Backbone:
C-alpha cells in the first residue's frame, strides 16, 4: 500500500536554509568546544587506562584450570567440558594417576589440557558443567599472540592463570 | 620571444595535433586535442597575450573539450577503433591540407609586412585585458550585442529541443 | 635572461610547494580527522607522536607500502594518468596567489600575471579531466557514474564561481590578484571594509553585494572541491567511493591529497579575494588612532620580520578557512543530485547575475 507522506509547507525563512545551517554549525561547534575544554566524556584510552579495577564480579574472561588447597590440579579429566564446549575449543588427553600416588583414588588426571583461545567464545559452559569445579572463567581478557599456536593455552598456562581455589569441593581429601 | 620556449611548445602542439588525427581511440584523440590547445595557449602567452592564452585554456581545454570527452565516453565508440582506413578519403584530406598550406605560404610570401621585422611594442608589458575589453565594448559593441542575442536564441532553441515531449 | 627573476621564482616555487603546501596538505588530513573526532565526541588519531602530530608520516608510509593494484580490465595508460591529472591543477593554481608582501625586496607571489583570476579558473577547470579519466579508465560502473557526476557538477558550479567574483573586479578594475590585495589594503577587506574611510556609507552599501558574492563563491568552491555537502561524486553510500573506487595505494593517495590541495588553493583564493590576502591591520595609537600597515617594505630586519609576519598571516587565514571547510563537512548532510543541480543552475547562477547588476548600479552612482 502506497503511503503518501505529506511534507510540511516551509515558510520563507525555513526555505532559505541558512538559519538551519547556522543552527547546525552552532551545535557542532559546541561539541568541538566542549571537547577542547575537556568537558566531554570520551572512550577509555585503552593501553594507558584499563578497566581492570572496574571489572564486575560476573565478568567472563579466559577459562583457566585451578588447583585446590593441597596444590592438586582439580581437574579429573572427565572430559565433560570438552563435550559441552560449543566451539570445541577444549582438547584433553587424560592420564592415569599411579597407585602409589597420594591421590590414587582419583584415578585420572589431564595429561594435556589445551584450550584454543581463537575458538573459545567465553560462554562459560565449561565452568558450569564441571563436576569438580576445576575450570573457571577468570578476568583475563587481553589474550594475544603472533601465531595460531601462540593462542592455544596449554595446561601450564591455564594453571598459571587459574591459580589456587580454596574450599568448595573437598571430596578427594584423605580424611573422607 | 625566447626560441628556447617557442620550439618545445610548437612541437608539442603539432605533435599532438597529428595525434588527434592518427589516434583510433576517440578518447585519446580528444585528449591529444586538449594538449594541443595547451601548447597553443603557451605560445600565446609567450607573445605576452596572456588573456587570449588563458581564454584558450578556460574555454576550449576547460569547457568545450570536457563536454566532447563526456559525449565520447557516453557514446562508447568501440567500433571506431577497428575501422578500415579509407584510402580515397585519406588522400583527399591530405590534398586539401596541402592546398591550404600552399595558400597560407603564398599569402605570407606576398604580404609586405611579413618581410620586415615588427616594430617593438611601445611598452614591454601592456594590459591586454583592458585593450580587449575596450575594443569589444567600444568600437565593436554592436556586433558583440548581436552575438549575445544569437547565443541567447541558440540557448533557448536547445532548451526547447531537449525538452521531453509531454505524453 | 633575467637570472635574478628565474632564481627567485624557482626558490619561491620550491619553498611554497615543499615547505608550505605539501605539509599543509598532509596536516589538513590530520586536522580533518582530529576536528571531526572532536565534533563527534571522539579523540581521533592521538597515538603517533605527541597528540598524534606525526600521524601524517605514518599515513604516508602506510600508503606507500600498500600493494599498488591495477585491476585487469582497466585502460592502463589513462588509469595511471588520471591521478596525476587530479593532483596537478590544484597545486599550480597557487602560482598566482599572493601569499605575502615582500621578503628581501622580492614580491611574495610566484607569477603576478594580469589575468590572475582567469588563470585560477582556467587551471581549476582542468581539474575535471583527472576525475573523468579515472571514472572512465576504471572500466567499472560506480567510478564511471562518479566521474560523470563530478564533471557535470564542476561545469555547473564553475559558472557561479566565475560570476560571483565579477563585482570584486568591477570594484578593483583589474584582474591581477595583487591589485585586489592592494585595493583591500587601502579600502578595507571586501566583506568588512573597516580600514580607510570606513564611515563612508557608500562603502558599506558596496559591502552588501560583496557579502553575497562571498557566500556564492564559497559555496561554489565547496562544490568545485567535491566537499560535503556536495560530495556526490564520492558518495560512499551510493557509489562506493565514486571515481577512485578502483584505485589503491599511492594512486588513491594522489586523489585524496589532490582534494585537500584543491581545498587549500580554494581557501587561499577566498582569502585573497574577500579577506584581504596577507593584510592584517594592527591598531596603532601613534599620533591618534589609525590602522598600521605591517609589510616587508621597512628597512633592515624589521622588513624581514614584517614580510614573514605577512606570510604567516596569510596561511593563518587559510587555516581558519580550512577549519571552516572541515566544520561544515561534519555538520551538513549530503544533497541529493537533482537538488544540487537545481541549486547551481536555478539559484546561485541567478543570484550571482543579479548581484553583478546590483554592484554595477551602486558603482555607477557612487560619488567617487
Ligand atoms: S568458555 Fe565456552 S567456549 Fe570457552 S572453553 Fe569454556 S565452554 Fe568452551
Ligand atoms: S575441567 Fe572439569 S569438566 Fe573439564 S575435564 Fe576437568 S573435571 Fe571434567
Residues:
Amino acid at each position: 500500500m502506497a503511503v503518501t507522506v505529506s511534507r510540511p509547507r516551509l515558510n520563507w525563512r525555513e526555505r532559505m536554509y541558512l538559519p538551519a545551517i547556522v543552527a547546525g554549525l552552532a551545535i557542532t561547534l559546541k561539541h568541538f568546544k566542549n571537547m577542547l575544554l575537556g568537558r566531554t566524556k570520551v572512550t577509555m584510552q585503552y593501553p594507558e587506562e584499563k578497566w581492570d579495577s572496574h571489572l564486575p564480579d560476573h565478568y567472563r574472561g579466559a577459562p583457566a584450570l585451578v588447583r585446590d588447597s593441597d596444590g592438586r590440579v582439580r581437574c579429573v579429566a572427565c572430559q565433560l567440558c570438552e563435550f559441552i564446549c560449543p566451539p570445541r575449543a577444549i582438547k584433553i588427553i587424560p592420564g592415569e594417576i599411579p597407585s602409589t600416588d597420594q591421590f590414587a583414588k582419583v584415578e585420572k588426571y589431564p595429561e594435556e589440557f589445551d584450550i584454543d583461545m581463537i575458538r573459545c567464545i567465553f560462554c562459560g559452559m565449561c565452568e558450569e558443567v564441571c563436576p569438580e569445579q576445576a575450570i573457571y572463567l577468570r578476568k583475563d581478557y587481553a589474550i594475544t599472540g603472533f601465531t595460531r599456536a601462540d593462542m592455544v593455552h596449554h595446561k601450564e598456562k591455564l594453571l598459571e592463570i587459574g591459580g589456587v581455589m580454596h574450599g568448595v569441593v573437598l571430596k578427594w581429601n584423605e580424611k573422607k | 620571444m625566447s626560441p628556447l620556449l617557442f620550439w618545445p611548445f610548437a612541437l608539442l602542439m603539432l605533435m599532438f595535433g597529428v595525434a588527434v588525427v592518427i589516434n583510433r581511440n576517440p578518447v585519446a584523440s580528444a585528449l591529444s586535442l586538449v594538449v594541443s590547445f595547451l601548447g597553443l595557449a603557451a605560445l600565446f602567452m609567450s607573445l605576452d597575450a596572456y588573456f587570449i592564452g588563458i581564454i584558450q585554456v578556460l574555454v576550449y581545454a576547460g569547457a568545450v573539450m570536457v563536454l566532447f570527452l563526456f559525449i565520447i565516453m557516453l557514446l562508447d565508440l568501440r567500433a571506431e577503433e577497428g575501422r578500415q582506413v579509407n584510402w580515397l578519403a585519406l588522400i583527399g584530406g591530405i590534398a586539401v591540407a596541402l592546398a591550404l598550406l600552399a595558400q597560407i605560404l603564398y599569402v605570407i610570401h606576398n604580404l609586405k609586412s611579413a618581410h620586415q621585422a615588427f616594430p617593438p611594442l611601445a611598452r614591454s608589458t601592456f594590459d591586454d585585458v583592458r585593450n580587449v575589453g575596450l575594443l569589444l565594448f567600444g568600437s565593436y559593441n554592436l556586433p558583440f550585442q548581436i552575438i549575445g542575442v544569437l547565443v541567447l536564441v541558440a540557448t533557448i532553441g536547445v532548451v526547447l529541443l531537449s525538452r521531453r515531449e509531454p505524453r | 635572461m633575467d637570472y635574478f627573476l628565474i632564481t627567485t621564482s624557482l626558490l619561491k616555487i620550491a619553498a611554497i610547494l615543499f615547505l608550505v603546501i605539501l605539509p599543509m596538505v598532509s596536516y589538513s588530513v590530520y586536522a580533518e580527522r582530529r576536528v571531526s573526532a572532536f565534533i563527534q565526541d571522539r579523540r581521533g588519531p592521538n597515538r603517533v607522536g605527541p597528540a598524534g602530530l606525526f600521524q601524517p608520516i605514518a599515513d604516508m608510509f602506510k600508503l606507500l607500502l600498500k600493494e599498488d593494484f591495477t585491476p585487469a580490465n582497466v585502460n592502463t595508460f589513462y588509469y595511471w594518468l588520471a591521478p596525476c591529472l587530479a593532483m596537478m591543477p590544484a597545486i599550480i593554481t597557487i602560482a598566482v596567489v599572493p601569499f605575502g608582501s615582500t621578503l628581501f625586496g622580492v614580491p611574495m607571489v610566484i607569477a603576478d600575471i594580469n589575468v590572475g583570476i582567469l588563470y585560477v579558473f582556467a587551471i581549476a577547470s582542468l581539474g575535471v579531466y583527472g576525475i573523468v579519466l579515472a571514472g572512465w579508465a576504471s572500466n567499472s560502473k560506480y567510478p564511471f557514474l562518479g566521474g560523470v557526476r563530478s564533471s557535470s557538477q564542476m561545469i555547473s558550479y564553475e559558472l557561479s564561481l566565475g560570476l560571483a567574483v565579477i563585482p570584486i573586479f568591477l570594484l578593483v578594475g583589474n584582474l591581477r590578484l595583487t591589485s585586489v590585495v592592494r585595493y583591500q589594503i587601502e579600502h578595507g577587506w571586501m566583506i568588512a571594509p573597516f580600514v580607510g574611510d570606513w564611515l563612508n556609507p557608500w562603502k558599506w552599501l558596496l559591502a552588501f553585494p560583496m557579502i553575497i558574492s562571498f557566500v556564492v563563491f564559497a559555496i561554489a568552491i565547496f562544490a568545485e572541491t567535491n566537499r560535503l555537502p556536495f560530495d556526490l561524486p564520492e558518495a560512499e553510500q551510493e557509489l562506493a567511493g565514486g571515481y577512485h573506487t578502483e584505485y589503491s595505494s599511492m594512486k588513491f593517495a594522489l586523489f585524496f591529497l589532490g582534494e585537500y590541495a584543491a581545498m587549500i588553493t580554494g581557501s587561499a583564493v577566498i582569502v585573497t579575494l574577500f579577506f584581504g590576502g596577507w593584510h592584517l591591520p594592527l591598531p596603532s595609537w601613534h599620533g591618534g588612532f589609525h590602522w598600521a600597515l605591517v609589510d616587508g617594505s621597512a628597512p633592515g630586519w624589521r622588513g624581514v620580520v614584517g614580510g614573514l609576519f605577512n606570510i604567516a598571516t596569510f596561511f593563518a587565514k587559510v587555516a581558519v578557512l580550512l577549519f571552516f571547510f572541515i566544520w561544515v563537512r561534519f555538520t551538513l548532510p549530503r544533497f541529493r543530485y537533482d537538488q544540487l543541480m537545481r541549486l547551481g543552475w536555478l539559484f546561485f547562477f541567478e543570484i550571482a547575475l543579479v548581484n553583478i547588476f546590483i554592484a554595477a548600479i551602486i558603482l555607477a552612482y557612487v560619488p567617487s
Summary: The interface with chain C takes residues 27, 31, 34, 50-51, 54-55, 57-58, 61-63, 66-67, 69-70, 73-74, 125, 127-129 of chain B (CB under 8 Å).
